[in-house]
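Dear Dr. L.,

I hope this message finds you well. Following up on our conversation about the binding site, I have prepared a predicted three-dimensional model of the protein together with adenosine-5'-diphosphate. For your records, I am including the exact sequence and ligand specification that went into the calculation, followed by the structure tokens. Please feel free to forward this to your student if that is useful.
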Amino acid sequence: MTFTKQSILNALSTVTIPGGPDVVSAGVVVSATYCDGYAAATLAGDAVERLGASGRARLAELCRAAVQAEGKRLGGELKAVHVEFAPGRGTGSGSSESGVSGHAAARPASGSGGAAGAPGPAQNTAPAMAGVRHAIAVGAGKGGVGKSTVAVNLAVGLARMGHAVGLLDADIYGPSMPTMLGLGSMRANLLGNMLQPFLVHGVKAMTIGKLVDPEKPLIWRGPMAHGAFKQLLEQTEWGELDYLVIDLPPGTGDVALTMAQMLKLTGAVVVCTPQQVAQDDAIRALRMFQQLGVEVLGVVENMSYFIGDDGKEYDIFGRGGAERMASRAGVPFLGRVPINMALRANSDAGNPAANFEGASTLPRELEAMIKNVEAQAALASFKMGTERPTLTIS
Ligand code: ADP
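The resulting structure of the complex is given below.
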């Protein structure tokens, strides 16, 4: 079947918003993604907000039916069509509407599920952690490749798009969030027995770096690492979140294992620099997530290229290495982040929001990467069963 992202848009352009133009002309399609029989679209904007919850449910139903019909027209049956509304005024923390047919219908669903086009509650976005729609881990094969930088900018960028976002610094051996978020002299507060997250740059953040002596080396044995992660996750007052971004320690250790056993993740983002040695490490991280039953949302190539004062782009590490690695591993490539002096300076100054402003390629590259993560998360939620990941290492 030659179904593509454009096929989704073609289908959506046949669906009219009551009292308005079609969904595509109205400019409410934020993203449309197709992969391996799964189609997902995210809608947002005043034109859909005005419809109210029941109007949006009807619109979602029409969109699903149109996308399914387009699939049939192109000679195949889609396994699933997911239509989601991005949060905004009037839509609370976002809602999603799914219709499942084909093989996907056989998977356990948390709601009534059913045939394509049938109205139904969100099925595969049911969070294992109460109030959290998507939990996304950010991992890397080794330290220093920019994992925390990507995690922070992903969280801040998602928040700038209007999502409710939490950021958990689970890099318990070397927490960098106090610096990268500019937490300075802020202190962690307890209310009852719950830690109150830091409200900075539009995100709710928690880091072990604010709970321990910053100059003390953090040497954790496996069970202690487990306990520290569990406490940060469960004893922080996260509230309702669209995304919880979890910055993992580098490598393939205890924290990732604890996380996968404790929490049903939407998926993981693997950060990698373009060099071959970095790719080898990243592949190990990627395989670890897969062994833990965590969907890999894709790979981000950090320090992809450098833009000189002359405006020329220099491929210092060999741009494209991580993209080729993602392709070999059969996972999506989410985007590239250039080596950028301002990015480093903004991280050191605790001002990540500045990365999204200015005329360089950085804001565009970051936003493109974040939109890809958003789309892959929507798809992964859909493919995900309701069972908690189990360890399958033999
Ligand atoms: P990790 O979490 O993988 O150990 P960090 O995100 O802490 O890596 O990044 C290590 C250092 O490299 C930080 O000083 C950070 O500001 C810098 N850095 C990361 N990515 C970039 C980039 N694309 N351009 C410039 N500096 C970067």
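In brief: Residues 89-94, 97-127, 386-390 have pLDDT under 50 and may be disordered.

With kind regards,
A. P.
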